[in-house]
Amino acid sequence: MAKAIQKRLADIRSNPKSVSFSDALAVAEHFFGESRISGSHHIFKTPWPGDPRINLQKSKGGAKAYQMRQLLAAIDKLTAIKAGEMEG
User: Fold this and answer.
1) Cβ count near 28 (within 10 Å)
2) What DSSP line would sit under the chain, residue for residue?
3) Whole-model pTM?
4) Each residue of 50-85: pLDDT tens digit?
5) pLDDT recorded at residue 41
6) Could you give the angle at the alpha carbon of 25 between the alpha carbons of 55 and 73, nearest 5°?
7) How far apart are CA 86 and CA 55, in angstroms?
């Protein structure tokens, strides 16, 4: 993982209430590819059905805190899935 993405991810983990939208978008794109845009929503595909879904919206220049928690949960799930694939 690129150092810039690692730093952005660490910043999101340490303070999910104060994340710039561009940082959130960059991290989500790194893990899940390009988003589909529907109105003001950036929607990302996940390799699993259901939650956690990834839907990002700009709010006063920043990202919404609850969406950052969902993004972190999705990254953790993706990481666990990939770790399980490597073991098996």
Assistant:
1) 24
2) --HHHHHHHHHHHH-TTS-BHHHHHHHHHHHH-PPEEETTEEEE--SSSSSSPEEEEEETTEE-HHHHHHHHHHHHHHHHHHHHHHH-
3) 0.90
4) 888 899 999 988 999 999 999 999 999 999 999 988
5) 95
6) 55
7) 28
Structure tokens at 69: 């928690």
Buried b (16+ CB within 10 A) or exposed e, 72-82: bebbeebeeee
Q: Report phi then psi at 60, rounded to 5.
A: 55, 40
CA–CA separation, 63 vs 58, rounded Å?
A: 5
Domain ranges, ordered by start, for the chain = 3-82
Beta bridge partners of 55: 43
